[in-house]
Amino acid sequence: MRGGALGDVLLGIPAWRALRDASAGAPLVISVPGAVAALVRAALTDDPTRPVTVIGSDDPAVAWIHGSDQAQVSHDIPDWAAVDVAVAWTRGHRDVATRLLGAGVGRVVAADPFPPAESGLHAADWLSATLEQVGIAVPNGWDEARWLRVPEIPLVSVGRVDAGGRRVAVVHPGSGSRHKWWPADRWRATIGALVADGWAVRILEGEADGAAVAAIFAGASVPDAWSGAVTVVRGEGLGAVAARLAGASAVIANDSGIAHLAAGLGAPVVAVFGPTDPATWRPRGPRVVVVGGTPGATWPHASSVPPEGTISWPEVDEVLGAVSRVSSLPQIEVLCGQG
Description:
Layout: H1 6-10, H2 13-21, E1 28-32, H3 37-44, E2 52-56, H4 60-63, E3 85-89, H5 93-102, E4 107-111, H6 123-130, E5 156-157, E6 168-172, H7 184-196, E7 200-205, H8 210-217, E8 230-234, H9 238-246, E9 250-254, H10 257-264, E10 269-273, H11 278-281, E11 288-292, H12 316-327, E12 333-334
Parallel strand pairs: 1-2, 3-4, 6-7, 6-9, 7-8, 9-10, 10-11
Antiparallel strand pairs: 5-12
Helix pairs in contact: 7-8, 7-12
């Protein structure tokens, strides 16, 4: 069981894969928020000999664990006493462990969803380390290759160009928290420099990103050069967004779930950090460059947001330099929807 937003959930995939591979064919049931279930399912159901079921956090078979109701069962979990091991990365994990053991689960591994502030561990490595209690190890180097797949989408060539022959940069100026938004004037300058260099820019606007996107255009007239080169993309589902990220020559994103999604797909990613510590939260993937970040910061999981004067935001030139580095890496083919 894993809660949280997109990035939080995706960072659990390496640990789930290790659980699946160590299960010797026994069924594995994973509970995550419904919005990301399809991506988790695609990442873990590529081997028919290792059965995996992905259910939503609101499924009655698991929803009771976080409340005071009696244990519930379902088609996917018909008998809690038959569950050998339950792993719960949740807030209130001690209470969750008590409920699961009371329902008859053989063994429970329950841990906070975030690493302790003093551990120095990356979030994905913290989740992996908790599995050592049941003798399961996540292989080293899991992030040196693509570790996510896009469900039901055709072959995508990373580094492809648009119809006009321009390299495509996908920009994500939002995040689940406004504190993680790189200042709008720096986004504006970065987009302008990319356009001047012949790039096409696609600005992603999800449900929480409207204000961040609007701020890029607020109080400034859009240069003529942006016409036809810069497009705001709204209303796409995660599968379509994933395919767009996988096909980009560069993805530039704040510390957000989109950055983790792009990194896992093997896309060239520039991750822009500010009040969070990349040592804990950087995207993991084969072609990722992190710029900025506040070493030692324990927000958002163990403290308040660092004071503005202590936050290390990157300069525009740093981001553009990182784009040049990641976009020059060799192109790869991503088989989306297949292993």
